[in-house]
Amino acid sequence: MSFKALLASKVGDTISTALVDFDEADLMPGDVTVAVDYSTVNYKDTMALSGRAPVIRQFPLIPGIDFAGVVESSAHPGFAVGDRVLANGWGLSQTHHGGFAQKARVSGDWLVKVPEVFSTRDTMAIGTAGYTAMLSVLALEHAGVTPEQGDVLVTGASGGAGSIAIALLSRLGYRVVASTGRLSEADYLRELGAAEVIDRRSLSEPNAPIGKERWAGAIDSVGSHTLANVLAQTRYRGAVAAFGLAQGADLPGSVLPFILRNVTLAGIDSVNAPQDVRVQAWARLAQDLEPGKLARATQIVGLAEVPNLVTPVLLGQVRGRTVVDVNA
């Protein structure tokens, strides 16, 4: 039985994609088969499809690091036919066929049941970006950052993870400062809950190893000089949750924020997070994310449109989240 899939291939150094009829018999091993409803386009997906980073480690492969749908068959004790499930990360789009297809077969250990308050479309409007944002919020809470301690900065604010981080933090009572390279999106960021919007250029250039204390906490998706400057401006006993490298994978900073201000740098990994952490994150998303804000941050495309989004996402030209309706 065949189904529609976006298949990535590589010739030399060039990665290409094609919408194909894929045979279900060629899916990789797994004890749960899912009829996929939706996937989503994350920054990591565009890194994979562009070849900008070696995300895809074997070809040909169906990319897409997320999917949500309904269990079609299961030999896993935790899932039954008809269950609504989602997957984020693990080996998807790296060594295992991912979510840009109408079917997926994976280990049930990779799956999380969709919270009752969400549709499968909602979970992909959240996707790995929003799930990572929630992991970041949990890290700030774990470090003891509370709303009373002062402003929390979100860098890369117009992107998917940044947008949802702002919505979550504002709902939890934090005063959020949004850093973006697109000040034209200021109204959108304020609608999500940002109290203040600043130009990313104020953070993106080399600066002093330690500066004026500004942030009680921060969520950073940018890395490089931006992360170094955020750390340098974080208040005593503040915390920064970092998960991205949009500016670069380097960290040209100093130990001074750590040894003079007791700042915590919390690394956020969404790919291999333990199952109990994933379940907690999705439970908190169900509790703390306002549906109206999620809708304002979302657009929907079909499978065939995914390749056209690679360059705009990499250039930071796409607002919020992009859901892929694999059956459109």
Topology (elements, then pairings):
Layout (H helix, E strand, L loop, with lengths): L1 E10 L2 E10 L8 E10 L1 H8 L15 E9 L9 E5 L14 E4 L4 E3 L6 H23 L9 E3 L5 H12 L4 E5 L5 H7 L1 E6 L15 E6 L3 H9 L1 E9 L13 H5 L3 E4 L7 H14 L2 H6 L1 E5 L7 H5 L6 E5 L3
Parallel strand pairs: 8-9, 8-11, 9-10, 11-12, 12-13, 14-15
Antiparallel strand pairs: 1-2, 3-4, 3-6, 3-15, 4-5, 5-7
Helix pairs in contact: 2-3, 2-7
Tell me about this structure.
- It is a single chain.
- The protein is of the alpha/beta class and 328 residues long.
- The protein is built from nine helices and 15 strands.
- The chain has helices at 43-50, 120-142, 160-171, 186-192, 224-232, 256-260, 275-288, 291-296, 310-314, and strands spanning 2-11, 14-23, 32-41, 66-74, 84-88, 103-106, 111-113, 152-154, 176-180, 194-199, 215-220, 234-242, 264-267, 298-302, 321-325.
- Helix 2 packs across helix 3 (160-171) and helix 2 (120-142) crosses helix 7.
- The model has no long low-confidence stretch (mean pLDDT 95).
Concise synopsis of the structure shown:
With 328 residues, the protein is an alpha/beta fold.
DSSP helix fraction: 25-40%
The separation of the N and C termini measures 19 Å
Overall pLDDT metric: 95
- The SSE string, one letter per element, is EEEHEEEEHEHEHEEHEHEHHEHE
Beta-strand portion reads 25-35%
Q: What coarse outline follows from CA principal-axis ratios?
A: globular
Tally of contiguous helical segments:
9
Radius of gyration, whole Å: 20 Å
* Low-confidence blocks of residues: none
Describe the biggest sheet? 7 strands, mixed
Category from helices, strands and their pairing: alpha/beta
Number of strands: 15
